[in-house]
Amino acid sequence: MSERAAPFYCPYCGDEDLRPGEEGPGAWECGACNRGFRLKFLGLLARGVERPDTGGDRI
User: Fold this and answer.
1) Which domain of life is it from (predicted)?
2) What angle do CA 36, 38, 40 make, to 5 degrees?
3) How far is CA 34 from CA 14, 19, 30, 40, 59, in A?
4) pTM for this one?
5) SS (H, E, C) the chain
6) Is residue 27 within 8 Å of 19, Cβ to Cβ?
7) What is the distance of C-alpha 12 from the center of its chain?
């Protein structure tokens, strides 16, 4: 993941008060809820992966 990639919102509280964490690459801290979390890029999805039909017209 690029060093410039950054989350826009905290995944726990949704606040935007984020800063890089001291725990290494991908670590972030939220100033609003006082939680730390890590982001990691897992890789690209394989071609041909299909999403299940949501059945939008069904009642």
Assistant:
1) Bacteria
2) 170
3) 12, 11, 5, 20, 42
4) 0.65
5) CCCCCCCCCCCCCCCCCEEECCCCCCEEEECCCCCEEECCCCCCCCCCCCCCCCCCCCC
6) no
7) 10
Q: How confident is the model at residue 1 (pLDDT cuts 50, 70, 90)?
A: very low
User: How far is the CA of 30 from the CAs of 4, 17, 24, 48, 59, in angstroms?
Assistant: 18, 6, 15, 37, 41
Q: Tens digit of pLDDT for each residue in 11-22? A: 999 999 999 999
13 close to 32: Cβ distance less than 8 angstroms: yes
Residue 25: C-alpha distances to residues 13, 16, 57, 59 (Å): 22, 19, 44, 46
User: Which amino acid belongs to residue 18?
Assistant: L
Sign of CA dihedral 2, 40, 31, 17: positive
